[in-house]
Amino acid sequence: MTIEAWRITGQSQIDSYVGRWAELAVLLVNELAVTRARGRPVDPPADRRAALEAAFAQQGRPTGRALTGADADRLAGVAAELHPAFTGDVAALNAALVRHAAVPNLHGDPPVLAFHAPGADLVDAWAADAGTALAMVIGVGQGRRLRTCEADGCELVFFDVTRNASRRFCGLSCQNRAKASAYRARRRT
């Protein structure tokens, strides 16, 4: 009897390709589709292209292609389409995959696996690849790793890469706010 390696630790292998595109989905949703972050209301960026370029630079992530204002505006729609996947809405994710023509194929030299047509524009390519990455995470039974922050007043999403998928907050500030709030509630009773 053979036991697959991922069953030993209870973890599926999520490769760097899937992780990279899932992180892009997180970045798009957090920059363009969230209305509350860390307990405060967030206004949509006035200049989406500048906001995305700043977020890419902060993460040290090159875009690969020139991002136009029209692309950034369309990516806001993609972010809104991908946001429900972080709460387990697979129907919305499936609709996004169909809308952006996500189809596995090899292209380039050397050939690279992608989930967008070789001639796809930047927005459809990113949407197809990021949506497929989220679908792959969910499809291997790791959907609980796609999370929304549990702190009150925060809608930020994240891709939980902890060993036991136990992360609950987008960051330390939300974790501290939640702990302080729980402490104050205990003190009142």
Automatic annotation (TrEMBL):
InterPro entries in alphabetical order: ABATE (IPR010852), ABATE_dom_sf (IPR023286), Znf_CGNR (IPR021005)
Zinc finger CGNR domain: residues covered: 145-187
Superkingdom per UniProt: Bacteria
One Pfam family recorded for the sequence: zf-CGNR
Cross-referenced SUPFAM superfamilies: Jann2411-like
PANTHER family in the record: BLL6575 PROTEIN
Protein name: Zinc finger CGNR domain-containing protein
